[in-house]
Amino acid sequence: MKHRRLYRRITKFTDVWDAQRLLVEHLNPIKDYEVVPVFQAFGRVVYEPVVSPADLPPHNASHMDGYAVNSSLLQNASPSNPVKLRTVGVCYAGKKPEFKVGAGETARILTGAYLPEGCDAVVPQESVTLEGEYVVFTSPATPYQYVDMKGFDVSAGQTLFERGRVLKMADVALAAALGFEKLKVVRRPRVGIVAVGDELTDDFSEAKRGKVLNTHSHVVARLVETAGGEPLFLGIVPDNRAAFLQLLENQIQRLDILLSIAGSSVSEKDVSSILASENKLYVHGLTLQPGRVGGFTFYGDKPFIFLPGLIMSTLNVFMFLAYPVLRKMLHQEPRYYHHRVKAVLAEDITFRKYHDFVKVVWVRVVEDDEGLRCYPVLGESSGMSIPSRSDGFIIAPPGTSALKAGEKLWVNYPPTL
To answer: Domain 16-32+188-329, CATH 2.60.40.1120 — does that match?
Structure first.
């Protein structure tokens, strides 16, 4: 009697860096853009270089509250030789003075106000005394003291933001101050998120009766959103290849990327191999721990990334494959971290297996008098509390059996979880 093998197994693990490079090389940045109101551009990616249309400030302006003067009138001013100038008006921010300041005159000026014609300096209000309509000066003034010169901050024609920049709120405010009412930004990549498994549910009452709550989809959606993408929930599909293929055919046209959660392991039900025979570019199995059963393929020209079902594997494969894809599509360097810092490892870490893999350890970062220290948050790859207790992750390259306390390592931060 012949016995049929019920279980698949991964026979080849692809170097995770090679997999990342191969995936990214087959992608192009998004060519579409949107024009959005300037204050809605926060967090969006600049589509094309933004060039300043004007100087900032657009005129010589007072740096503080005081009196606008012609500095030549105060050359010989001193306590023993005070100079009295008559006040002829007040200069307010946002309104160009309609008067000129002549010989023997001064003008009250507020911070940010236009410097009136006939003046080249500002004397702080605490340095003068008042006598009716006259102001008494007892010290010299130098040309352009306490004056913000036209264009000192930004000059007309200056490039403000290069293509691919993620706009901070300070960037948005600067653009608005320079007169931009709208900005051109890259269209958000549309990322389909599908959870795979007969055991999953979105219903809390069913979860209380034994089903598994579909939490991972919400974690991945948050990562997609903070990475600049538009997450689209495609729901839960059972461990059924026909059902999964039907979902692919129905949804793929409106997506830029498809992420599946679970269904990438090696049981007879897993659906990750559904396109293996149809696509030469198929990777299943990575030299990444946790995350070794992750991978990717393409459905047409759309990347389809397999995120494993255990939470730490889900996060790691997202960071090493999906995140670089999102960055490439948004005209950014396709790296596997949002930002990173150097921190001293606080405790020894020993790796008992997968020595030839890239090992990922999530850590908590603490600042003390000596700088940043990182503490490993250890546990099984199914540990739901690990990401909650972590700030970022460190990696140990292939061939590493241990990391020693005292080593200074890069802590890689994800986009906000």
So the answer is: no
pLDDT in tens, 131-181: 999 999 999 999 999 999 999 999 999 999 999 999 999 999 999 999 999
Distance between CA atoms of 169 and 179, rounded to whole angstroms? 16
305-352 pLDDT, tens digit per residue, is: 999 999 999 999 999 999 999 999 999 999 999 999 999 999 999 999
Mean pLDDT of the chain: 93
Structural fold of domain 34-56+153-186: Molybdopterin biosynthesis moea protein, domain 2 (3.90.105)
> Domain 61-148's class?
mainly beta
